[in-house]
Amino acid sequence: MAAASPPASPPHPKRRKMSSSSDPDQEPTSPSAAGADGAQPRAPRYKRRKVAILLGYCGAGYQGMQKNPGARTIEGDLEEALYRAGAVPEADRAAPRRYDWARAARTDKGVSAAAQVVSGRFYVDPPVFTDRLNAQLAPQIRAFGYVRVTNSFNAKKFCDRRRYVYLLPVFALDPSAHPDREAVMASVGSGSELTKCLECSERGRKVPGVMGREGKVPDPALQEEKSVEASREEAAVGSNEDANCDPASTGDRSVDLPIPDNETNTQITEMRSNGAEKCDVQLSGGTLCSEAVPASNSETVCPILNSDSNTNSDSVDVDPSFVAEKKGSIETVVTEDGKKQAMDVVTEDEKKQDVDYEGSSLEEMPLRSAFSYTHEVKERFNRILKKYVGTHNFHNFTTRTKAEDPAAKRFIISFAADRVVNLDGIDFIRCEVVGQSFMLHQIRKMIGLAVAVMRNCAPESIYDVAFRKDVNLNVPTAPEVGLYLDECMFTSYNKKWKDSHEAVSMEPYSEEAEEFKLKYIFPHIAAMEHKEGAVALWLHSLNSRNYPDFRYMDNAGTEASIAAAVESVDEGTAVSWQVMTPEKCFCNVCLLKLS
Q1: C-alpha 269 chain-centroid distance
Q2: How far is CA 253 from its chain centroid?
Q3: DSSP codes of every residue in 204-239
Q4: Which residues contact 529 (CB under 8 A, 6 or more apart)?
Q5: Which of 70, 107, 294, 537 is most buried (CB neighbours < 10 A)?
Q6: What number of CA atoms fall less than 13 Å from residue 200's CA on the CB side?
Q7: What is the pLDDT of residues 146-180, one digit of tens each?
């Protein structure tokens, strides 16, 4: 009788695939690698692993995340760094499809990310792979770590939700802060005049020798050549100084305003609107003789027929009573050279509105205005943001996507702005939006329309038609500087593979990600607002002239009333009515036509 077989031993528990310290699946060096003749052993070989790399980056100077030929992108630099770090072989260089490359989110130009996730098959050695990769990357791109994932993992398809944060300055919600030119002119003589934003006029000009938005350092030789040419032009203009216009020959009051060489025509127009019916503006030693400002015309004209004459006009209609009222605010001061200069006497209220930040430290910078993110403002802003929550057709909040395209439907999980953070003396509202996926410019357009409604540039009822397929709206796009990707979530994947694989999460690297935001992302957002006024300059463009669809609801109501009037016309009168579309003019000339 055969002996009984020994009992089977219990199976060993399955070991989870880890991403740190030692890798149990690493192929060791073969013992036979060293020959009998004492030859050198072969270098250890590593297998390709399917991993998810967690990284962060600052979008300054980059044309977005996605690789684009001829442009500097985050993805392009990352692929090259992976090759130089030994994670990608020479045969697969510049061919990401060969190693299953995928990204969890695709950020726009200038947009940053604190928790981006990319996946692929790479040669990794657990102890030093992250360090070798960071050594090949720019300081503003940092890899926090990597996680072993399943062979079918795809960072784009397996990502359930994405959370973005937009840091919006508090003053952006103040209707009186950074008003557009039309609003300033309309407030003249109303008793509650809006103050011109001289700070943004300075920011909008290009200053020689200062690094631009794209991070290009100016060429010293080119700058020296330009300075020589500028000095020659100044000498030529100074020789013609005696040919200036004579103020006495005009018979009216005129003021000589010294203006820097790079002053713009817009500022000249704004100075005319301060109460000078005729201004002789001195520019680089010469004088530009302006024509008298025409009287205001209260007769209603067709904006379409007169669009050519009203578009590029430098003349400003000024009420004579306002000119007399503001006449005392201009003083003539004689300098040491005997030249006359005009100085505006600024009141204390105007000093609170217009502040010159040049030469002042960030700590000593005064507040822009008394406006703050109060409880009432917070409730209204969050009520507007909640209109985006749910499944809607966001074809008006993106580009190159039609309303009939199924991809225009997106699901927003939450959208709230509950906290205020201070960065270098500026208060920012933390607008946090969570959604399954987002289209190109979608978040920036959602913020742009919400700000326009908060500043009373557009009615809140515009959201009743913003998601309709048959309505096309031109929605403003907020600047890209304040937007960054805060986290990519893989909830379903982590729940399914929790027993065999590590979770794809930023939780183990939360401290590193927070440190990266404090070092690169937040300073960049604050610096762009301090130096260039990214949001402040954008606020000046929020008006019905640049965005006629702000008046869509008013035009739609006018069209409905006219349609009702057409139905009430006597049936015996042979009249054909032509109703204009909301995008066109509704004056009496353009609205009705008799045939």
Answers
A1: 28
A2: 44
A3: TSPPTTS--TT-PPPPHHHHHHHHHHHHHHHHHHHH
A4: 169, 426, 481, 535, 536
A5: 107
A6: 22
A7: 999 999 999 999 999 999 999 999 999 999 888 87
Model-level pTM greater than 0.90? no
Q: How far apart are CA 110 and CA 15, in angstroms?
A: 42
d(CA 29, CA 46): 10
Q: Is 249 a residue whose pLDDT tops 50? A: no
Q: What is the dihedral of CA 144, 148, 150, 152, to 10 degrees?
A: 40
Residue 131 annotated in active site: no
Distance CA 547, CA 462 (A): 13
Mean pLDDT confidence for 214-223: 46
Stretch(es) of the chain classified as CATH 3.30.70.580: 49-159
DSSP 34: S
Q: What is the CA radius of gyration of the chain?
A: 32
Sequence-distant (≥ 6) Cβ neighbours of residue 285 within 8 angstroms: 234, 237, 238, 240, 241
375-489+528-554: CATH class = alpha beta
Average pLDDT, the chain: 73
Burial class (CB in 10 A: 0-12, 13-18, 19+), 123: middle
Contact 118, 101 (CB under 8 A): yes
φ, ψ dihedrals at 201, nearest 5°: -65, -35
pLDDT at 483: 98
Give CATH 3.30.70.660 domain extents, the chain.
375-489+528-554
Q: Could you give the count of Cα atoms lying within 13 Å of 519 in the half-sphere of its Cβ?
A: 13
Cα dihedral sign, 559-564-570-572:
positive
Of residues 108, 180, 280, 549, which has the active-site annotation? 108
Q: Which residues is 148 bridged to in the sheet?
A: 51
| 520 marked as binding residue | no
Q: Which top CATH class is 49-159?
A: alpha beta
Amino acid letter, residue 290: S
Rounded Cα distance between 237 and 225, Å, is 19
| Confidence label for 208 from pLDDT (cuts 50, 70 and 90) | very low
